[in-house]
Amino acid sequence: NNNNNNNNNNNNNGGIGSSVHIGAGSSSRNHKSAPMTLTEIIDFLHSFLNKLNSSNMKNKRSTYHGIWSAYHELTVKYLYPWDREYMRRMPNRREDGSLYLSVASFRDEFCSETLIQAFGKAKDPDKLFVGLVQQNCEEAKCRSG
Question: Would you tell me the crossing angle of helices 38-58 and 64-74 to the nearest 10 degrees?
Answer without folding.
Answer: 150
